[in-house]
């Protein structure tokens, strides 16, 4: 997807013998669609909290991975999963208390009208199911997404994931629209301009004879460079979709589960009431579980008329992991921590932007933060090469992030939610050193 910092083998000679041998063995057996991060890949053997460790015991601050949302190797996940493995693990065609209890608890975190849930194993499967449901409900085939979106890797999800690259074909029944760019657009106008682009996309689908089924949007536009504020800018577009008879699908795989520091879900910041919501990766802290949450009226016809079954979706072991995630987010008050630590991180990055001209913009919400790297502050021209250099220099300081955005020039900072104010300060100090000594600055 976003591979500005991909390993290309040019630094193989710089790897220690063990890592070099492992990389060679990996290349021999894995298909070339797999990619490694960083000019010098990191060889990891364990994780704990916000830290990852290599074989020599060196620790790396994880400021990137949203999957272990409550931290790597959390003991509560280990406990509940281990206990459930020793009791029962089967599918959802039997009556099991944990599945029902978790579903009741999960749905209580949503607006009342979002009252039904279907489980899958992955976010990609959940996206696929949401698209099928929307198309069956509306009788139309057309889908609108943002022009650099990523929504998954099944055939249907890849069709609405332009960020997978120029060789990933986008079919005629999918239309992409440019996401708002709050670094280069007026915040007062960007929401309505986005809504106008959505209107035009609806017209294109009508001209192609496929009609509008739905629009799917990652509620923080993470692959489009992270566009978080002003809260509410997505609402005009959602109103346009609804007026045209389409459904709004909120992709909460990345912004969900409290990451944005303002409630559980990204769509609530925009005052939206989606028809369908997609959940994924962080839901089980690394144990495969995902879901589609939706309105009863939207899901009823599909559920009545079409047989859907996912053998492992919602199995008791995955439900145990998902239960542990909710426990820890609530017990450790991680949503509040995301708000506080994220504010500290944003403030530190904004201070750096005042001193390093290569750092053109800082934006985000909670612990989902972007820092845009530019060639020139006046033209605001993206600088992907410098962004890649920053990512790799941070890796050398054992701090892990990645890059995002159409131009691959946006530093993507998205740590596990136990990331604290002290971790934020550590990150800002390291980035200050990188920007001051290791990359081109103006």
Automatic annotation (TrEMBL):
Pfam families hit by this protein: Aminotran_3
Top-level taxon of the source organism: Bacteria
Signal peptide, first to last residue: none
GO MF annotations in UniProt: pyridoxal phosphate binding; transaminase activity
CDD domains for this protein: OAT_like (cd00610)
Keyword field: Aminotransferase, Pyridoxal phosphate, Transferase
Keyword Transferase: yes
Assigned protein family: Belongs to the class-III pyridoxal-phosphate-dependent aminotransferase family.
UniProt protein name: Aspartate aminotransferase family protein
Organism: Mycobacterium aquaticum
């Amino acid at each position: 997807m976003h591979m500005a910092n991909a390993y290309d083998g040019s630094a193989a000679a710089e790897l220690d013998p063990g890592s070099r041998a492992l990389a060679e063995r990996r290349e021999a057996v894995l298909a070339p669609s797999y990619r490694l991060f960083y000019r010098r890949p990191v060889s990891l053997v364990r994780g704990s909290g916000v830290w990852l460790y290599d074989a020599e015991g060196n620790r790396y601050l994880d400021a990137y991975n949203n999957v272990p949302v409550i931290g790597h190797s959390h003991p509560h996940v280990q406990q509940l999963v281990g206990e459930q493995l020793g009791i029962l693990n089967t599918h959802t065609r039997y009556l099991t208390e944990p599945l029902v209890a978790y579903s009741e608890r999960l749905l209580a975190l949503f607006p009342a009208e979002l009252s039904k849930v279907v489980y899958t194993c992955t976010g990609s499967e959940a996206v696929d199911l949401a698209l099928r449901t929307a198309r069956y409900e509306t009788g139309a085939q057309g889908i609108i997404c943002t022009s650099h979106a990523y929504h998954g890797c099944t055939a249907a999800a890849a069709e609405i994931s332009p960020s997978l690259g120029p060789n990933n074909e986008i079919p005629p029944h999918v239309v992409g629209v440019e996401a708002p760019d709050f670094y280069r657009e007026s915040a007062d106008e960007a929401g309505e301009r986005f809504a106008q682009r959505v209107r035009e996309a609806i017209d294109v689908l009508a001209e192609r004879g496929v009609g509008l089924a739905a629009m799917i949007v990652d509620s923080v536009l993470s692959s489009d460079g992270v566009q978080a504020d002003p809260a509410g800018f997505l609402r005009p577009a959602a109103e346009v979709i609804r007026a045209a008879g389409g459904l709004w699908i909120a992709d909460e795989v990345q912004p969900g589960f409290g990451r944005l520091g303002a409630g559980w879900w990204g769509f609530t910041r925009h005052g939206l009431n989606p028809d369908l919501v997609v959940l994924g990766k962080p839901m089980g802290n690394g144990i495969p579980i995902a879901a589609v949450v939706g309105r009863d009226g939207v899901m009823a016809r599909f559920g009545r008329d079409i047989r859907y079954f996912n053998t492992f979706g919602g199995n008791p072991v995955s439900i145990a992991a998902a239960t542990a995630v909710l426990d820890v987010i609530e017990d450790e008050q991680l949503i509040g921590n995301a708000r506080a630590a994220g504010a500290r991180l944003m403030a530190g990055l904004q201070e750096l932007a005042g001193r390093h001209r290569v750092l053109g913009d800082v934006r985000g919400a909670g612990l989902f933060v972007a820092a845009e790297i530019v060639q020139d502050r006046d033209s605001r021209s993206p600088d992907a090469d410098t962004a890649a250099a920053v990512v790799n220099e941070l890796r050398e300081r054992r701090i892990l992030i990645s890059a995002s955005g159409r131009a691959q020039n946006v530093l993507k900072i998205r740590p596990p939610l136990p990331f604290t104010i002290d971790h934020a300060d550590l990150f800002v100090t390291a980035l200050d050193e990188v920007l001051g000594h290791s990359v081109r600055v103006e």
